[in-house]
Amino acid sequence: MTGRTTTSRSELARLGFAELSESLARIADLEARFGSDLPLPFTGADASWGVTADPDGALRALERLLERAPDEVRRVLADGAATERLIRLLGASVGLGEFLHRRPAEIALLLEPVSEPWSQERYTTSLLDAVDGATGEDARLRLRVRYRRHLAQIALFDVLNAAPTDAFPAVAAGLADLAGAALETAVDIARREVPFPAADVAATPLAVIAMGKAGARELNYVSDVDVIFVTEPTLDPDAGTGVGTDRAVLVATRLAIAATHVITDLAAEPALWEVDANLRPEGKDGALVRTLDSHVAYYERWAKEWEFQALLKARPIAGSADLGERYAAAVAPFVWNSAKRPGFVESVQRMRERVTEHIPEAEVDRQLKLGPGGLRDVEFTVQLLQLVHGRDDESVRVRSTLEAMDALTAAGYVGRPEAARFGPDYALLRLLEHRIQLRRLQRTHLMPSDEDELRVLARSTGLARSASALEARWRGVKLEVRGLHERLFYRPLLSAVAASDGDIVLTSDQAADRLGAIGFADPEGALRHIRALTQGTSRRAAIQRNLLPVLLRWMAEGPAPDRALLAFRRLSDTLGESSWFLRMLRDSSGAAHSLTTVLSESAFLSGLLERFPEAVAWLDEPDTLLRPRPIESLLAEVTATTARHGDDVDGAAALVRSARRRETLRLGMAAVLGHLDVDALGPALSDVTEATLAGALTLARRDAPAGLEFGVIAMGRYGGRELGFGSDADVLYVHRASPDLPAEQASRAAQAVVRELTRLTDDAIHPLELDTDLRPEGKNGPVVRTLESYGAYYARWSLTWEAQALLRARGAVGDPQLLRDFEHLADRTRYPEHIDDQQVREVRRIKARVESERLPRGADPARHLKLGRGSLSDVEWFVQLLQLQHALTVPGLRTTSTLEALDAATAAGLVGAEDAERLGAAWRFASRARSALVLWSGKTTDVLPVDRVQLEGMARLMEYPPGSASQLEDDYLGVTRRARQVFEREFYGA
């Protein structure tokens, strides 16, 4: 080769070699050792080397095979067609090259003509012939070698095909049939190996049911094979033959275990793949083998919705064919009635979440199967359409994804243009998956990130000429597939209510079936809303016809799609042809998605949006427009409002109340969309309340005498800046008269201010309850007092609970000096020099009384968010007792905030870190749940609901995945139970 080195390097580069120097050296060495008649580049085999996936890798593998079995390889190289098969196979699959290196006798398969994959029956005959009655290690070796010989033949059919995407269905079916033959042979071997009498083994039927891709006959090169094992008794008491139920289950279980070991045991030839039986009833915790009757009983009484969906692909694949067919017939009704069962919607939503939640974040973008725009998106959409329409239409009851798509198209449920785009996209993704796995015979669904591997994949699939071009084509398909669900499932819904330019027209019943399957409780009502939104020739109708399919999908992914659609229709009716609204919906998918989330998850916010539809614009700039406004900004607004409308008190008050609703809406939207957590929500809502009271007080004092000072003292959660949605505002009112203002006149004026303040803040739309029950003497005491009167009362008459209430007193609104003076007065009572045992017992006694008397009749103490065991009340009373005992000496305890005081107590060693963590977690959880319940229902309530729909809505607001109602309930009961244990030990001394 000397003298033509430069030319050879150029030729190698033209053929696709990347390691030019190494490959040149390897060619020279091979010619020197084995003769120049080898079909290497430049010796007649150029075409094969130029089209093989990895010419460098093929050359390395050829070198190893020549060293291992020169005679066998030379016989192949003497045949031009066989040589092409060898080079193409070695370039496509390192794994099969290693197989040929381990088993050189199998190199002869390359001399055989390439044919389409065989039937399962023919593969079974071949595998059984290879095993030839053997058992143990010998049987495993024979089975696996023959299996991989057939695998190599399927791979040759695949890689030599000029149109590999067209060949994919035959390849996938062949792989499934070969797997079925392997399982059939494994069961046959197991029957010779299990330690039972031959008569019992022969009398015990075992059916192997394939699930997933094996059941659909669309298996990968390397994939777990999902199975379910079924048996049944065969006892004939009269004849004394057969086996009873217990014996059948025992023998069949050992057969299933033994057959699995035949496939997966460590042996001289590597295992084939994993046999996964986790889709059986009760999963890993369930019996490996059940009788047919036991399976049916389980599906009738205990199965979860996803289990019915998994059965869609169930197919007898090995063992007793008769029993397998009877199993398939018995479970089919469960599959096709599942879309009408309660819980179907949540199950569908959870199924979509489940597939991605365990993917490492770094892998999501490279996932062919589970990532966005991946294979699971396609399969999910097709299966959902089958489940919805297969109940009434048997023609779509097929297992294979492509066959299902064809059936759905033929039946008119999917448009032909969409189907024409879907088929090639799905085949392309499956081709990529196949060739990636074939490369090293490893189970993986990740697109390579290495440029060299991408280049090999591009050559292997023939989809592109370079790594970058392949990457671009794949990403284009991903993008198209991501819109597949909307195009196939939602867009045809419009055809049921309006003329469509597509070739698919759903009947109203068919459209209602689809809407019902995805969570609409009133499908007919939803169709009426869709009709109202899309009919006509207006610009709005045209835009909404384009947008509504994706909006419907987002609504359906939420917990209350009916509510979301109704609220969206009302918004659209209100905003009409507003150009900014239509432009935002059209151009900002993020804002449109956020809008559907808010409308679906919150009745409270949907109601406020009807009053402030322009607030939808905030969703287009959430990072700035959904941030809580500073108190200074809020106060400036109400100050300007009261100054501008001073002559119209009621009109000004209406504007102040309107501003409160608007700002509450802003905070609610921020909370629903994850821009505001519970620690920031309390202060923000307290600021809004403060600004509202400041504006209303300005108006209420318009006729008050000049010498009257007046203040509003925040108490309770308002004083602690811990308000939630729907919280009352606990307050005290204080006044002070100048020396020249008569006391009686000042008192009457102060009472008039309170009455007017209450009137001006009264809001039927978004109530603001000003609760004065924490005042001295409670409901029997005057609503407003002078500062001196408060001082005299607290000095002489106050009870321990009143000192405890003052722990959260904070000057909120009014004359600053009066507010400061009240706080100083309160300090003398709430931070005592000493609290004796009698007073501690009194606090405990009152807490016990609150628990027994203030809970609403019939309320479950474990579920009350405010007064229940381990909830807000427990944590707050515990912290407040510590404040009464230690605040004088521990400055950090002198705060109105529960969590700040808890942190200070922990830092001072008054509470253990683990106990503090449990208490803080319970307080935060209960606070979040309380606000979530108001947001979801639009009603103020303090009891964790038992209704699953309400719990699901709360769970979504608290950022749980779909189908987490029970998980939310368990988490709340668990966190409060742990907090209650701390409370009882440290508060009561129990």
What would the keywords be for this entry?
990 residues, 10 strands, five-stranded mixed beta sheet, disordered N terminus, mainly alpha, single chain, 45 helices
Furnish the topology, listing elements before pairings:
Blueprint: H1 5-15, H2 20-34, H3 46-51, H4 55-68, H5 70-77, H6 80-92, H7 94-102, H8 120-131, H9 136-159, H10 164-193, H11 198-203, E1 207-210, H12 212-215, E2 225-231, H13 245-264, E3 275-276, E4 289-291, H14 292-301, H15 305-310, E5 315-319, H16 321-336, H17 344-357, H18 375-389, H19 401-410, H20 416-440, H21 451-461, H22 467-482, H23 484-490, H24 508-517, H25 523-534, H26 539-557, H27 561-575, H28 579-587, H29 589-601, H30 603-611, H31 622-625, H32 631-644, H33 649-672, H34 678-700, E6 708-714, H35 716-719, E7 729-737, H36 743-761, E8 770-771, E9 784-786, H37 787-796, H38 800-806, E10 810-814, H39 816-830, H40 837-853, H41 872-886, H42 898-907, H43 913-937, H44 948-957, H45 965-988
Parallel strand pairs: 2-3, 2-4, 7-8, 7-9
Antiparallel strand pairs: 1-2, 1-5, 6-7, 6-10
Structure description:
By secondary structure, the chain is mainly alpha-helical. The strands form 2 sheets. Strands 1, 2, 3, 4 and 5 form a 5-stranded mixed sheet that branches. It is elongated, with a radius of gyration of 37 Å. The protein starts with a helix and ends with a helix. The N terminus is likely disordered.
